[in-house]
Structure to design on (141 residues):
């Protein structure tokens, strides 16, 4: 629960309360205008509470997401107490998104030789094997 009492989260809590209060007040104001004879205000009277509900939904979803996520920072002493060495590298918690690979197409030989796509793919695989740390966008082919 300490994760929800950081300065950023306190600002989010305050923003949620201010927005919900403001949206519900605007909804009540539109109800009073609609009761006075402004027919268009009935639509707005329904719309503002929906906005308030959406703010509560997003806030609640973010709270659940934060509570389910890993702790922000573990003290170094706790990592060694859990059995793992304190200076062991931690695995990446987020998947890595890479750029698509651009491969130059080689036309197939007309005389029944090797398939051009297969040759290009095998060349790309050989390049990947020769350059294990390179990014796919670095492929010169």
């Amino acid at each position: 629960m300490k994760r929800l009492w950081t300065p950023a989260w306190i600002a989010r809590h305050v923003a949620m309360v201010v927005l919900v209060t403001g949206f519900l007040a605007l909804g009540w104001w539109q109800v009073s205008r609609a009761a006075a004879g402004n027919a268009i205000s009935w639509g707005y009277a329904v719309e503002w509470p929906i906005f308030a509900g959406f703010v509560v939904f997003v806030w609640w979803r973010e709270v659940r997401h934060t509570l389910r996520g890993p702790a922000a920072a573990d003290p170094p002493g706790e990592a060694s107490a859990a059995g793992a060495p304190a200076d062991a590298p931690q695995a990446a918690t987020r998947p890595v998104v890479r750029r698509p690979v651009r491969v130059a197409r080689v036309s197939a030989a007309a005389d029944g030789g090797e398939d051009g796509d297969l040759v290009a793919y095998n060349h790309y695989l050989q390049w990947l094997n020769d350059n294990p740390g390179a990014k796919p966008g670095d492929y010169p082919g």
User: Anything to note?
Assistant: The chain is about 55% helix and 0% strand. Residues 75 and 103 are 46 Å apart (CA to CA). Helices lie at 7-35, 41-68, 76-81, 116-130. The longest helix spans residues 7-35.
